[in-house]
Amino acid sequence: MYLGGWQLRVHFPRRMKELASCESLPEYLQADLSFNLARLRREIGSEAELRELVAHEMAHPHTEALADLALKGTRSPAKQEAIRKAGETLTTVMSRMVLPHLP
User: Fold this and answer.
1) Residue 20 lies in a domain
2) Smaller CB count within 10 Å for the chain: N or C?
3) Residue 97 falls within a domain, yes or no?
4) How far apart are CA 41 and CA 68, in angstroms?
């Protein structure tokens, strides 16, 4: 996922609402990936789905800087939501581009 040189930490918190999340500091090449194991067991039906989810979360560090920059330019909740959705779409597209090339 082109994360060589990044400091990645993986967490499995017991109390987490989301299925998975990524918090990153792109300027420092650091990212925390968190996965809700209980929900993963219930909601992910195949290895292919799991690979896609992990690839998606691992693409977030690359898109986070753009989203953060865009969010700083507005206080409008509607615009912030539009930026969030655009960031998720970009992250999904990027992860699907590299997914076929992963081991």
Assistant:
1) yes
2) C
3) yes
4) 31
If one counts the domains in the chain, the total is 1
Q: What is the pLDDT of residue 46?
A: 95
Tokens representing 36 are 């809700």
Predicted local confidence at residue 2, as pLDDT = 86
Domain range for 93 is 7-101
Tell me the C-alpha to C-alpha distance, in Å, between residue 68 and each of 26, 27, 65, 91: 10, 11, 5, 14
Q: Torsions phi, psi of 21, nearest 5?
A: -155, 160
User: Long-range contacts: 31-37, Cβ < 8 Å, 24+?
Assistant: 31/3, 31/6, 31/7, 31/60, 31/61, 32/8, 33/8, 33/9, 33/57, 33/58, 34/10, 35/10, 35/11, 36/12, 37/12
* pLDDT per position as a tens digit, 28-38: 999 999 999 99
pLDDT for the residue numbered 102: 86
Instruction: Report CA Rg, the chain.
Output: 14
